[in-house]
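Quick one before lunch.
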Amino acid sequence: MKLVDTHCHLQAHAFDEDREEVIQRSLETLDWLVVVGDDIATSQAAVALARPGVYAAVGVHPYHAQAVNDNVIAELREVARQPGVVALGEFGLDYYKYSDTPRETQEEAFRRQLELAAELQLPVVIHNRDAQDDIIRVIDEYASGLAGGIMHCFSGDAALAAKCAQWGFHVSFAGNVTFPKAQPLRDVAATISLDKILVETDSPYLAPQPVRGKRCEPHWVLHTAKTLAEVMDVDFDAFVRQTTENASALFQPERARAALA
Ligand SMILES: [Zn+2]
Ligand SMILES: [Zn+2]
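Model of the zinc ion complex:
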């Protein structure tokens, strides 16, 4: 059994020089992976990369929330129906210092995409940065109508982990859980139910500890998985099998594979 990278941005410019090589390298090591969009153009680019083993998530990141209007939602609905699409996202809330999009604008775009996900019955890929209270308040309203979801690049505390369990969401960890200073995050990871945990790279960002600072590639999800298996006190092979089964249960890649054939 091989790992799944549930979240990477292989359409990013960082891969313009060697994208196909990176994809081939990734597919040699991984079972499959999900390329995630953060606006309409990068979502279309994710769909264009889709093939057996490479699937797409489509959505508008809070950084681009200002662009979200009726037309963009209509375009997103169209892109979401393309073969190879397994989820809607990433979208959510980002209150970190670099985000200059007003919170109300972010929340409006967040709600509209949650509504679209409920309509299309696609799982959601949620981006949360420094916005935990509002993330909880908004998702509480929609969770019961959703076809599952992921709290991607989890950076929350025990309260958010408990909410994810209540919503039936999966919790996905990226390379930052391997960083020396991330002990509080590892303590939360240890409490997540094994049938809800996922791993991701968020490539090209957030390369895990042994390769930190480099351009991250999907196969480096291995380092994150090793750290988490230790933290959760699970045999590594069992961890790989479990997380890949979790990802398959949520994204249903065999359905996407058939649609692409
Ligand atoms: Zn994100
Ligand atoms: Zn991302």
